[in-house]
Amino acid sequence: MNRLGTILSVAALAASFAIPALAEMTIHLKDGRSFTLPIDPQDVASMTFGPGLASQTSRGLTTAAPTHLGAMRGVPPVPGVPQPAATASLVPPPSMAEAGTQPHASGRVLRVGPSRDIKTIHAAADQAKDGDTIEIDAGNYLGDVAVWKASNLTIRGVGGRPHLDADGEAAQGKGIWVTAGNNIRIENIEFSGAKVGDNNGAGIRAEGANLTIFNCYFHDNQEGILAADNADSDIVIDSSAFVHNGTQSGQTHGIYINHIRTLFVRGSVFQDTTIGHHIKTRAENDYILYNRILDFADGTASYSIDMSNGGRGYIIGNVIEKGPKADNYTMIAIAMEGPTLPEQEVYVVGNTMVLDRSSGIFVHSRSPGTTVVADNIMAGPGVPLQGNGRLINNVIAGGSTSGLDANGGGGNRVVRDIGFVDPSRFDYHLKPGSPAIGAGVDMQQVNGFKLMPEYENLYPLGVAPRPASNPPDDGAYRFVSAAR
């Protein structure tokens, strides 16, 4: 992990504790960037620059089968502290304008809550100026919708996760929040109940350039996040949950990202989306990394991931499960609405994909460009790849075996059973003897981005460093044993 990664990790962890900030500590880098985190000066005894977080073990990684979030609807899926200290930092990919998603604090803090001078979020949004930090006390905010017009804002929940229930209201007829300013970071907020007449009621309607979402919870909205076209915008979604969003129309989704420069989604969970897609994106560059995208027994989602117009995409280290009631048989769809974006190359590497439907397609590409599907686990009665592309060193159980060596592919293994710890409880870690152990090949780098999974998703949210192995294991989880 580089120096920037360590700094961002510290800032993200501090934010995740949601402690009321009595002061702000700002770290100024020599290149002009600044990172601000809340801290109580009385708690600081000393400050030491040690070897960094990279030396820590992946504490929090577990092989125990967790209760899935489907049993927790209406209850925040993340407690006040979402992850242990080993949660990895968010380091944007090389193509992303890193400074663009990091607000520059003015030093002014607006505090919102029933006992504060500013009682409502709407009032805080009206008063906010460029560079402000807005802290919202935990509690229920009914119909308190807002348009954020200022730029370079940090907006975060403190003392717990404030719950923003639309309660029949919508800012500008669009959703709970509209982010019209640029460079806005939102932390530790719950959004629910967004409904409008055109069925596009969003937890957040993103219109300005550059939005970062960290440790937030979106549920029971028509759209979790709906992002407007903005060619200069990068959107980061990190360690957040999207549960039971969408409508019966099939035109609404967990997130719907229109034409922007870059979408970066990491360490998050998508589940129980109604009819629409869990992730729908038209971004030029997509980084969909280390997430859990799940239907479970009753989910009716369509595509798990829809790169509607192709583009340059990296789909790495995800756990994707398509349930028996899913509305569509395709998991990952590429350029199904036409390959209209300038770059057409997609890398699907190191994912665990489980098809619980009676039939389906794991990856369906209509892009004329490069599609590489490598080092994945594909379990269930589906076609591994339909359309243009190459299959390399995947482990396949129960699916079609046709076309495995097409277009220069090879090294794929067809097996009877993957050897998951407990697939009935959606625990897809590997048991001893699994044929996925050591079945992968190091895919190296493409466009300066490393294709081999470096992290694994944590339950319920976030990521931890993935232990290295040579040769690598296929799938989203590396097999761990004391003897290895």
Question: Overview of this structure, please?
Answer:
- With 484 residues, the protein is mainly β.
- The chain has one domain: 3 Solenoid (Pectate Lyase C-like), CATH 2.160.20.
- The chain has two helices and 42 strands.
- The strands form seven sheets. A twelve-stranded parallel sheet has the order 3-4-7-10-13-16-19-22-25-28-31-34, covered by helices on one side. Strands 5-8-11-14-17-20-23-26-29-32-35-36 form a twelve-stranded parallel sheet, with no helix packed on it. The chain has a ten-stranded parallel sheet with strand order 6-9-12-15-18-21-24-27-30-33.
- β39 (445-446) and β40 form a beta hairpin.
Low-pLDDT runs of 5+ residues are 1-101
List the total number of helices: 2
Determine Rg (CA atoms, Å): 21 Å
How many DSSP-defined strands? 42
At the first level of CATH, what is the class?
Mainly Beta
* Main sheet properties: 12 strands, parallel
Overall geometry: elongated
| End-to-end CA span | 24 Å
Total discrete domains: 1
Look up the CATH topology. Answer: Pectate Lyase C-like
* The CATH homology group name: Single-stranded right-handed beta-helix, Pectin lyase-like
- In percent, how much strand structure appears in the residues? 35-45%
Judged by helices, strands and strand pairing, the structural class is mainly beta
Average pLDDT, to the nearest integer?
82
Helix content: under 10%
Name of the CATH architecture: 3 Solenoid
Q: Strand sequence of the main sheet, in spatial order?
A: 3-4-7-10-13-16-19-22-25-28-31-34
